Amino acid sequence: MRYPPYPKTSEGGPPLFPGRRMGGMTVVLITVGGLIALAAVGGLVGLIVFAHAYGEVHADMRYPYDDVTVISCRMDEETRRPVAGVRITSEAARRGTYTVHLVFRDRAAGTGKDAAAGKRTLVVEDLAVGATVSERVVGPTTVLGPPECKAEDVTFQSTAGATTVSPSSP
């Protein structure tokens, strides 16, 4: 009885591509493709982790713009300038200075759209936490008809000193 010949174990098994050796370019393509796939998966995981962390960190964040309200906007009958009533209610964690940049527009002027009627800046210094202040701001130029007043930008600068902790305190 004859048994089939046993494979030669010293050759390392069957070739990957029968009749052909694996060339250097094939190895390079497989390696580069694997690295690209790994980078894509890593980038996607990184993006998901960043989005999750960003959302948690900024969940309760307040902006100074939320503390400012333009409560009135009218044209002064004598000077024909726009007059804005602005109310600031500080809901910041510390006392500080609010800087409000107001934009005035003349809705009666212009072709099809209202025309610019100037800008003014209102600064309220050292406003306490929870305090409310109301100010009247007069625009720089006259308007032909009813004006539009808008808070374009609001910044807040804390005037309270930073709390420091001694290294020896528990």
General description of the model:
20% of the residues lie in helices and 35% in strands. The longest helix is centred in the first third of the chain and has 34 residues, at 24-57. By secondary structure, the protein is α+β, with helices and mostly antiparallel strands. The chain has one helix spanning 24-57; strands at residues 68-75, 82-89, 96-106, 115-127, 132-138, 147-158. The model has no long low-confidence stretch (mean pLDDT 83). Strands 1-2-5 form a three-stranded antiparallel beta sheet, with no helix packed on it. The radius of gyration is 35 Å and the shape is elongated. The protein folds into two domains: 23-56; 64-158, Immunoglobulins (Immunoglobulin-like), CATH 2.60.40.10.
Entry summary:
The chain is of the alpha+beta class and 170 residues long. The protein has one helix spanning 24-57; strands spanning 68-75, 82-89, 96-106, 115-127, 132-138, 147-158.
Strand content: 25-35%
Overall 3D form: elongated
Radius of gyration: 35 Å
What's the rounded overall pLDDT mean? Answer: 83
> Strands across the major sheet, in which order?
1-2-5
The structure class reads alpha+beta
CATH class of the largest domain: Mainly Beta
Number of domains: 2
Helix count from the secondary structure assignment: 1
Which series of helices and strands comes N to C?
Answer: HEEEEEE
Low-confidence stretches: none
Q: Using the 3D structure, state the CATH architecture of the largest domain.
A: Sandwich
**Overall number of strands:** 6
Q: Indicate the CATH topology of the largest domain.
A: Immunoglobulin-like
Distance between the termini: 88 Å
Question: Tell me about the biggest sheet?
Answer: 3 strands, antiparallel
Q: Write the CATH homologous superfamily of the largest domain.
A: Immunoglobulins
Helix content: 10-25%
